[in-house]
Amino acid sequence: MKKTIIIFGLICVSFMFLNWGSSGHTWINRKSTESFPVSMSSFMIWDDSLANHGSDADDRKSWDPNESMRHYIDIDNYSEFNATGHIPSTYDSAVSAHGQYFVKNEGILPWSTKIMYDSLKLAFQQHNWHAAMLHASDLGHYVGDGHMPLHITKNFNGQYTNQDGIHSRYESDFVYNYLSYLHIYSGDTVHFISNVQQYILSYLYTNYNYIDSVLDADTYAEGIAGNTTSNQYYQQFFTKAKNFTIVLWHNASHSLAELIYTAWVEAGSPVMVTDINKPLTASSNDIQFYPNPVSAVTTCQFTLLKPETAEWSFYDMTGKQVLKWVKSCPEGKNTSDFDLSVLPQGLYYCVLQTQSQKSYSKILVAR
User: Fold this and answer.
1) What is the 3-state secondary structure (H, E, C) of the chain?
2) What are phi and psi of 339, to 5 degrees?
3) What is the pLDDT of residues 131-147, one digit of tens each?
4) Architecture, CATH, for domain 2-266
5) Domain spans of the chain?
6) N or C: which end of the chain has fewer CB within 10 A?
7) What is the pLDDT of residue 95?
8) Taking the model in full, what pTM does it have?
9) 288-365: CATH topology
10) Which residues pair with 365 in a beta bridge?
């Protein structure tokens, strides 16, 4: 396929099989957990796993000949998009209108994203937490690609505007040079998505509007630097592209969080407890219980950055919530006593949640 060959050569020259740079997908995935609502507290520890598996989908390109088409869509090769701003909503309807060869050749990003969403929902329903994490990681990769404007156009490498190489300059070199300025997303409220396929298409339509911004920033930087390789070129490129790129990254993380949340709700909102042998940390103010192990009453020691209402939720190893307490607490170091004598012997997982922070701990009830 035309795009598979061109992008393969392009990316091999710089960062092997990367989109948004591996660091880009790492941070887009990682930051999505910061939008998880309190009801998904047990999934906060996915942040490292989502980040570490953020480029798995790219790795598959080396052995799966069908993977590349899942990462892009040349949406402006669809006549109805140029006429109305929309394309057929489903893969089957697109094939019915244009034929399978056309649809696959132009890329299937919106429909591969939906397939991965469906796989995530099924894994949630089956309480297959490891599979759910891997599907969520792949979903994040496709969502990230859907927020990279050059993955949504036939002019994906600037070949129609005399800007050859722009794809790698923007999504790899630009990101590599200025990563610390880009991953500043700190979470937003998520909402349930009533129509997932339309939601995916809608952000593609929105992000298509940034294509000219990317191309214009490249032209501007080259005009000042006289080349597309120098530090001056990238500094000027960053000046022009920084703000909208931050918006794209922010929206990618938030969209991923909303899709994961919706899949979880549609699956019945199961509560997860992960590998009990893995350390659980979420902040510099992790909670501590003493004594631990405990036979009856234990004391929780924690620190709050401001006066807040704190909520403790205890889960058993099946993910079932077994106890819950809510208490107003002052700023600073705090202690609170809990009677766990009603719980059977076993290992439990506690989440302390306030409006501004989450902390985790494991506690063993032993008699």
Assistant:
1) CHHHHHHHHHHHHCCCCCCCHHHHHHHHHHHHHHHCCHHHHHHHHHHHHHHHCCCHHHHHHHCCCCCHHHHCCCHHHCHHHHHHCCCCCCHHHHHHHHCHHHHHHCCCHHHHHHHHHHHHHHHHHCCCHHHHHHHHHHHHHHHHHHCCHHHCCCCCCCCCCCCCCHHHHHHHHHHHHHHHHHCCCCCCCCCCCCCHHHHHHHHHHHHHCCHHHHHHHHHHHHHHHCCCCCHHHHHHHHHHHHHHHHHHHHHHHHHHHHHHHHHHHHCCCCCCCCCCCCCCCCCCCCCEEECCCECCEEEEEEEECCCEEEEEEEECCCCCEEEEEEEEECCEEEEEEEECCCCCCEEEEEEEECCCCEEEEEEEECC
2) -95, 110
3) 899 999 999 999 999 99
4) Orthogonal Bundle (1.10)
5) 2-266, 288-365
6) C
7) 97
8) 0.72
9) Immunoglobulin-like (2.60.40)
10) 294, 346
Strand-pair partners of 314: 323, 350
Q: 103 — phi, psi (to 5°)?
A: -60, -45
Tally the C-alpha atoms within 13 A of residue 101's C-alpha that lie toward its C-beta: 1
Partnered with residue 329 across adjacent β-strands are: 308
Picking from 70, 212, 88, the residue whose alpha carbon sits closest to that of residue 141 is 70
Q: Which residues have C-beta within 8 Å of that of residue 59, sequence separation ≥ 6?
A: 17
Instruction: Answer yes or no: is pLDDT of 282 > 70.
Output: no
